[in-house]
Amino acid sequence: MTQEDKELFNSICNKLGMNISTAINIFIKKVNATRSIPFSLELEPEWNDETIAAFEEAKAISEGKIISIYMRDIDIENTESDTLTLGLTFQLQGANS
Predict the structure, then answer these.
(1) Contact present, 57 and 66 (Cβ < 8 Å)
(2) Helix crossing, 3-15 with 20-34: angle to 10°?
(3) What pLDDT is stored for residue 35 in this prediction?
(4) To pair with 65 at 20 to 30 A between CA atoms, which of 6, 9, 48, 59?
(5) Per residue, what are the HEC states of the chain?
(6) Average pLDDT over the chain, rounded to whole?
(7) Phi and psi (nearest 5°) for 65?
(8) For residues 20 and 44, what is the distance between their CA atoms, to the nearest angstrom?
């Protein structure tokens, strides 16, 4: 433990009305009572290639570099021809706006 860390911890303990020894005892009692560390220990998520690609696509869309259209729930079986016509209107924003 660095001296700076110890001093900061001591200062926080004092503001809470206790000394370092009391804080350590509270920590130990909590660990013993719950049989766990009383705070979360986590690693940053590790993203797979598909997720990274999705993040990059979302960023490019938000920056106006690409336009992405997703079509869902289109029931083609009930159309009366073999042609599906979609009317699309775009409002492009970018450097010329």
Answers:
(1) yes
(2) 80
(3) 95
(4) 48
(5) CCHHHHHHHHHHHHHCCCCHHHHHHHHHHHHHHHCCCCCCCCCCCCCCHHHHHHHHHHHHHHCCCCCCCCCCCCCHHHCCCCCCCCCCCCCCCCCCC
(6) 79
(7) -80, -30
(8) 30
* Residue ranges of domains in the chain: 1-68
Long-range contacts of 52-61 (CB under 8 A, 24+ apart): none
Residue 6 has pLDDT above 70, yes or no: yes
Question: For the CA atoms of 11, 14, 19, 23, what is the dihedral angle to 10 degrees?
Answer: -80
90 with 67: CB under 8 angstroms?
Answer: yes
Q: Compute the C-alpha angle 10/12/15, nearest 5°.
A: 110
Structure tokens at 36: 């766990």
Is the model's pTM score more than 0.85? no
